[in-house]
Design brief:
12 helices; 293 residues; globular
Length: 293
């Protein structure tokens, strides 16, 4: 539980740091933002790669039978997921981004029974999904900001890819958590870097930009490694439901870093409350139950 909470705290901090990076580095063009993302994830993969090499004292390798799965893991969990996420983040607030991201917990609960034994949909889970999604939709159907495909829509699509990637990662990472995490991050980062380079993307090299990308790379390296290990050891829904903390930690980080104080407005507080209640209801009947994947 502590490891899952730590992951959501790290990911919650990433959204406002990304928006802060866009501002201080003057990254207005889509290609520049993608270059920033690609460098971050490729560097994160290298961090995990070096750590695995030093820890195991051997070259990190993936069995031939799992190479395709690890590449698919990287394409879904990092490449496509963050390709849409980075663009979406630029067109909405960090607070709304973190709340929409919580939808991945509900997608996991709805789809996990189709892929893993021991996970099933119950009436209480359905009620939890409805309440949680109501909270997510509430904050995106207000006249204050509205809903756009390029902004909130792409962030929501990225959560679907995040769920799919988590399922694939659970399947292919057993016994090779560090290796699969390293290669999926590097492959996903390369997927983002290629279109960014073709589009003429740039990322200014300054002390500030270096510190920002190193921090974000560390967030990805640490959180993805822990998250992958947790997915291998536990039910997918049981772990992914901890995404409920991302709206809370993300909103608080947004307030601290960006000064986005809307989290304290009644509408956002109700949205966060509904989201947390929904995830609690989804997770409640699964406590103490061992799943099979």
């Amino acid at each position: 539980m502590l490891a899952a909470v730590l992951c959501t705290v790290l990911w919650g901090s990433a959204y406002p740091v990304i928006k802060y990076g866009y501002a201080v580095m003057a990254l207005d063009a889509t290609a520049d933002k993608l270059m920033f993302a690609g460098v971050r994830f490729f560097l994160a993969g290298l961090m995990v790669f070096v750590f695995a090499w030093l820890r195991n004292r051997r070259f990190p390798a993936v069995p031939r039978s799992r190479i395709g799965g690890v590449l698919l893991y990287g394409a879904l969990q990092t490449g496509l997921m963050y390709l849409f996420n980075y663009i979406g983040v630029a067109h909405t607030t960090a607070t709304k981004t973190s709340i929409i991201t919580a939808a991945s917990a509900f997608f996991a609960v709805m789809f996990a029974p189709l892929f893993f034994r021991g996970e099933r949909m119950t009436a209480l889970k359905v009620i939890g999904v409805i309440i949680g999604m109501a909270g997510i939709l509430l904050v995106n159907n207000t006249a204050l900001d509205g809903f756009t495909f390029v902004g909130e829509g792409l962030v929501l699509l990225s959560t679907l890819l995040n769920t799919a990637g988590s399922f694939v990662g659970k399947r292919v990472s057993k016994g090779i958590v560090y290796e699969s995490t390293a290669y999926q991050l590097m492959f996903g980062g390369a997927m983002i870097l290629l279109p960014a380079a073709l589009m003429g993307g740039r990322m200014p090299l300054t002390l500030t930009s270096l510190l920002l990308v190193l921090y974000l790379a560390f967030v990805s390296a640490a959180a993805f490694t822990l998250w992958t290990a947790l997915l291998v050891l536990h039910e997918a829904g049981q772990i992914l439901v901890f995404n409920m903390l991302i709206p809370v930690t993300g909103a608080l980080w947004s307030w601290l870093i960006l000064g986005e104080s809307r989290i304290f407005e009644p509408l956002y507080l109700v949205s966060v409350l509904l989201t947390c209640i929904g995830v609690f209801l989804v997770n409640f009947p699964g406590k103490g139950r061992a799943g099979k994947g």
